[in-house]
Request: fold
Amino acid sequence: MITVIYKNQKIQLDEKDSLGTGGEATVIKANNLAFKIYHVSSPEKILKLKDFISSNFDLPDNVARPFDLVYDLKSEPIGFTMPIAKKCKEMIHLSNKKYRTQEQIDTNSIIKVFSHVKETLEKIHSNNLVVGDFNDLNALFNQNFLSVFIDVDSYQFGKYPCPVGTDQFIDPNLYGVDLTKKPSFSKQTDWYSFAVMFFKSLLFVHPYGGTHKTHQTLYDRAQNKIIVFDKNVIYPKMGLNPNCLNDELLNFFETIFKKAKRIDIPSSKFKELENSFEACKSCGLFYHKDRQQCPDCHKLKPQQNVDISQIIITKNIDEDKCIVENIYQTEGAILFTKVIDKTIYVIELINSNTFLHKFSDQKVSTLLWKQNLKNVRYEIFKNYLLVGSENDLMIFEISANSITPVTKTVTFMFDNVPMFGCSENKIYRLSDSSLATGEILHKNLFESILMQTLENQTWFKVGNPDIGCGFFRIFKDYHYFIFSKKGRFELDLPVLDGKIIETEAEFSINTILLLRKTLYKGRTWSHYHIIDDEGKIIDTKSEESLNSELLRTLSGKILVGSSIVHPSDAGIVIEKHKQLTLKKETSNYISSNDRLFLYKDGMLAVSDRKIIFIKLIK
Ligand SMILES: [Zn+2]
Reply:
């Protein structure tokens, strides 16, 4: 608890009500407001805030502007209040293909969000305010595809600079500029950041993404204006066919990123884009109706294969052969996959119906529901299906070709995601201020407390056999833990600078791979630790995310002992004690966006629409 003074009243801020924390401040909910409290308050920040508040800018409600100053008990200003952004997600989710598949967010919805972002940005600009550090973590969207702008206290106005810019979104014209000295951003640099976010959400690639033989970093590519469509760039496998956009949009992006002109799409043109994309009836790709036919199904020439020599990930290239078997291919979308022993469970959405498929000796399919449930998480263990939706956790028994409700319980969320997991035999969930584990007996859940955590502030993940890892957050401090058959252990991890923006974990029988992504002074970093089942750290690595072939995406990997198996566009890469070996023969079958699972004497690679089995042989 901390006590602050707001509008001459004492207010208690509870660590359980934290909404998030970053390098600069923690945001806590109280009295239906968000209290942003700086870790270290400075006279410059407070002066800027006072000027912002007294300027009475005419901003729309979806801009979370500072309302009033907040003081400590010695009457020193330490932060401010602002409106709470309810049920919103960061825009970064819109360029995440897995999230987009799961939530079935199509291109027309992207147009809708960005149309609202554009409208809002114009209103901000009409006040002579500039967003400055405009990025996909401080722009949010809600369920109606309307935008919300946060971190408004960092906006540039008058003599006040916006002191930071984010690697992927900052205009290359500002590379190397000391942003703290004087106001350097402009309306044009905001439109540049807008165009990057829009591009990423339309095609799932950065305008300067992909791999180039000589210009290897994004900075280098941006400075040399070599865009992802350049003939010397290997286009990421995850990226959509650019011809799903119309020529007008492609020209707009080329003007900005190739010709380096800072233009903006006129509002009338944006209006025309609304609902102008339709789904291909055979492959599901959304393409602009100007195109007449689906660019993926009517390709003029076969897609280029990845030229392995140009991918700069590894020194060892392995000539091992591989055997590949198609397990499943669908026109629908794969929402969830789990392997238990030799059985594969798949939850799939097809024609707005959600199915559960079980692949063992034969395929058995069960219709779960005649709709797509949004914002849910699935888990499967033994013969039970778990469905988490906000704080509700429903448990169903899976029988021959139907499911029967067994029981219902609750859990807490972290960042709006319901937290629960399961091992082979047990369910794990959050209950009040503890992590509970239980089994189902006679249709009832029998539980015991595994450990104390903090309500609303706990993230965790579980593997087999009953091995897990997580953290709870007390204001700005993260407390990491693991549990295994050997007990519960606190982790002594180095404190990372900046804001943690993503956490993932994978498990082997007795080791844990903890992956984290941080944003610090505008640059994104990926970190991993391999940890044994007593909490001892075996291996650690940190890389800048943008230039990392293997750690740009944290999910989808397999851990075997102390080796990590990464999916990449060049094929499977095995990392052992930081030595990388590329299994070149797998390059035609794998993409960096796949999820890998151990299966029989090989592995499964799961993409949005396909499951294959890969076995490596000498
Ligand atoms: Zn098609």
In short: The first helix runs from residue 43 to 54.
